[in-house]
Amino acid sequence: MQHSHDVRAELREPALALRALIPDVLRGYVELSRAAMAPGELSVATKELLALVIAVTRECDGCIVSHTRSAVRAGVTRQAVAEAVGVAIMMNGGPATVFGPRALRAFDEALEDAARATPAS
Questions:
Q1: Cβ–Cβ under 8 Å, residues 52 and 103
Q2: HEC secondary structure over the chain
Q3: CATH code of the domain in which 101 resides
Q4: What does the pLDDT look like over 85-95, one tens digit per residue?
Q5: How far, in whole angstroms, is CA 96 from its chain's centroid?
Q6: Which of 71, 81, 114, 121 gives a 20 to 30 Å CA spacing to 57?
Q7: pTM summary value
Q8: How many domains does the chain fold into?
Q9: Contact assessment for residue 84 and residue 46, using Cβ atoms and an 8 Å cutoff
Q10: 21-70 confidence digits (pLDDT tens)
Q11: Residue 14: per-residue pLDDT
Q12: 44, 52 in Cβ contact below 8 A?
């Protein structure tokens, strides 16, 4: 996987173009995502870890980037990401040993971005 910033930049324009062509579909997807990720019996952090593990299993760099950023916002720790990736490796085998490290690197990049955005005390 490229650097997470590169993945986001690569997908930005095509995603905007697609949204212009099928706005109702993407609006529906956004509503589905909001409903699925809303806090409930499972915390947002847990849901982001689930989404991240599925992204690793599906080998989707864009989803990995998105859900690592959201995991950082939800307060997920690096250790929690590593343990979740361990479950993905157990369930998915070899491909997860490639996409799991990508997820950890994307998480680290998201942490760095969050730290830069937060004013020092």
A1: yes
A2: CCCHHHHHHHHHHHHHHHHHHCHHHHHHHHHHHHHHHCCCCCCHHHHHHHHHHHHHHHCCHHHHHHHHHHHHHCCCCHHHHHHHHHHHHHHHCHHHHHHHHHHHHHHHHHHHHHHHHCCCC
A3: 1.20.1290.10
A4: 999 999 988 88
A5: 15
A6: 114
A7: 0.82
A8: 1
A9: no
A10: 999 999 999 999 999 999 999 999 999 999 999 999 999 999 999 999 99
A11: 87
A12: no
**Which structural domain range is residue 73 located in?**
4-117
How many of the other CB atoms lie within 10 Å of CB of 7? 19
Cα dist. 88→16, 18, 55 in Å?
Answer: 31, 31, 10
Q: At CB < 8 A and 24+ separation, what contacts does 20-29 make?
A: none
How far does the chain reach from its first CA to its final CA, in angstroms?
34
